[in-house]
TrEMBL record:
GO function terms (MF aspect): dITP diphosphatase activity; ITP diphosphatase activity; metal ion binding; nucleotide binding; ribonucleoside triphosphate phosphatase activity; XTP diphosphatase activity
One GO location term (cellular component): cytosol
Residues annotated to bind substrate: 4-9, 65, 147-150, 170, 175-176
Name recorded for this polypeptide: dITP/XTP pyrophosphatase
Entry function: Pyrophosphatase that catalyzes the hydrolysis of nucleoside triphosphates to their monophosphate derivatives, with a high preference for the non-canonical purine nucleotides XTP (xanthosine triphosphate), dITP (deoxyinosine triphosphate) and ITP. Seems to function as a house-cleaning enzyme that removes non-canonical purine nucleotides from the nucleotide pool, thus preventing their incorporation into DNA/RNA and avoiding chromosomal lesions.
UniProt-listed Gene3D superfamilies: 3.90.950.10
InterPro entries: dITP/XTP_pyrophosphatase, ITPase-like_fam, RdgB/HAM1
Catalytic activity: XTP + H2O = XMP + diphosphate + H(+); dITP + H2O = dIMP + diphosphate + H(+); ITP + H2O = IMP + diphosphate + H(+)
GO biological processes: nucleotide metabolic process; purine nucleoside triphosphate catabolic process
Assembly notes: Homodimer.
Binding site for Mg(2+): 64
Positions of transmembrane segments: none
SUPFAM superfamilies in UniProt: ITPase-like
Top-level taxonomy: Bacteria, Bacillati, Bacillota, Bacilli, Bacillales
Source organism (scientific name): Alicyclobacillus acidoterrestris (strain ATCC 49025 / DSM 3922 / CIP 106132 / NCIMB 13137 / GD3B)
Amino acid sequence: MIATHNAHKVSEFQALLAIPGLEVEPLPPGLPDAPETGATFLENAQMKAQFYAEYVSDLVLSDDSGLEVPLLGGEPGIYSARYAGAHGDDVANNQKVIARLHEQGVTQADAAFVCALAVCRNGQLLASVEGRVNGRVFDDVRGQSGFGYDPLFQPEGASRRFGEMSTSEKAQYSHRALAVQLLRQRQKEWLGE
């Protein structure tokens, strides 16, 4: 179970976690929201995985991910999904990043996308990892692909933003793909193989 109801995240994990015999499903409907009171992406991912592992008998993979802009004091950071107030309002969140860049008198800045992953079963934490990709954020939206801050973020070594990339192209650079790769290296710990 992927600890989310976000269809974009579920489909991205289905593509990235192509392990034979492993079915990737979203959480069942009706579960309460997990607490996200950690100070880091890793703490939040671990909390969510342990929380939902109390409700389902399958492996639970949780992620906590977001954008960090050092010029903005690390914002939006762990508050990435609810940066502008409402959880998951991508347009408002992007507009707030752009406004914050303009407050600093810039049109672009160094940034990093971070993805922490944690796997639990029966409340026991089996593995956790963190992937980070550096790049830049810009003050204009480009592309219709992806979600979140993808239209603002261009990873190092790429000529286009995540929002302009296909899913397979984004996977060559993405923080989530890197975190999954790190998790797959520890597959024996959490999948028992």
